[in-house]
Amino acid sequence: MGCVELKGKTILVTGAAGFIGSNLVKRLCDNVEGVTVIGIDNMNEYYDIRLKETRLEEMSTYPSFIFMKGNIADKTTITEIFEEYKPQVVVNLAAQAGVRYSITNPDAYMESNVIGFYNILEACRHSYDDRMTGVEHFIYASSSSVYGSNKKVPYSTDDKVDNPVSLYAATKKSNELLAHAYSKLYNIPSTGLRFFTVYGPAGRPDMAYFGFTNKLREGKAIQIFNYGNCKRDFTYVDDIVAGVVRVMQKAPDKVTGDDGLPLPPYAVYNIGNNNPENLLDFVQILSEELVRAGVLPEDYDFDAHKELVPMQPGDVPVTYADTSGFERDFGFKPSTSLRIGLRKFAEWYKAFYM
């Protein structure tokens, strides 16, 4: 693997006002000497815009951060950013997220996850025009949802992923295919990261732990799918960001094959906790931490507010990452316990909403 020095570089982060994007921007600005981080986000209203605005306010305190409001599906915008700033490392986190929303709003997924992704790839390709050094490493967010209806667990990047059960998953699989083609054709080092259920403070309100919290606070019953027999590889956002920064610094090698043509400098990894948690246990810990933080009263009757229901369309019963490849190549494994992670979320929730 080739070493990519981040010090003094210009890094483009798409989806910069998103949950993972904003945490990555802050980590880079805090820890990388002489870095310039260009962030782009369309600031859409898929969820509470105040969260994105708050994240943006925090990032804007860094002099090394430059924000552009724009849509990656607008090719002109992307071309202009690449021409003006010439990013050497690109992290594409912009995407329309969520499995359930893709059932009712497919257009948003095709625009951002397919056309937008293609625009970023094209800009990376043309960064090499006129013998320029170009993009040294392209990193992008894939998803554990690409494993679809696979029965074998833990999920391995060696598994076939040709059976998506949602449009969202299909768009993420298409990202991996497009990146592979561009890596092969234009020798662009690219690494895809299949994220597994990322959670934490200021996260996405469409995620289960956030929705559960809102409902419990309102005194409503929460629905626990598959009668509580769901398992998820919950991964705390700080662990995800630490992993992404490590990946940014190690690009797949450019190697010429026997035919004289480049072998694609391409890799895909799972990045998850490698420790699936039962959804009932997760909700129990969450409720305890919400009481501890003062979001819920001490005498809250949790059992009276939970309802066990069947699976939903597009969902899978277990997500569980085989992270051995990631640990081997980057020497890193997430370490934040569920209780610590949910405690930080509960404390943030109390401060933000109450």
TrEMBL record:
Domain of life: Bacteria
Domain NAD-dependent epimerase/dehydratase: 11-257
Pfam families reported in the protein's UniProt record: Epimerase
Signal peptide, first to last residue: none
InterPro entries cross-referenced by the UniProt entry: Epimerase_deHydtase, NAD(P)-bd_dom_sf
SUPFAM superfamilies in the record: NAD(P)-binding Rossmann-fold domains
Keyword line: NAD
Protein name: Nucleoside-diphosphate-sugar epimerase
Keyword Ubl conjugation carried by entry: no
TM regions (residue ranges): none
Species the sequence originates in: Enterocloster lavalensis
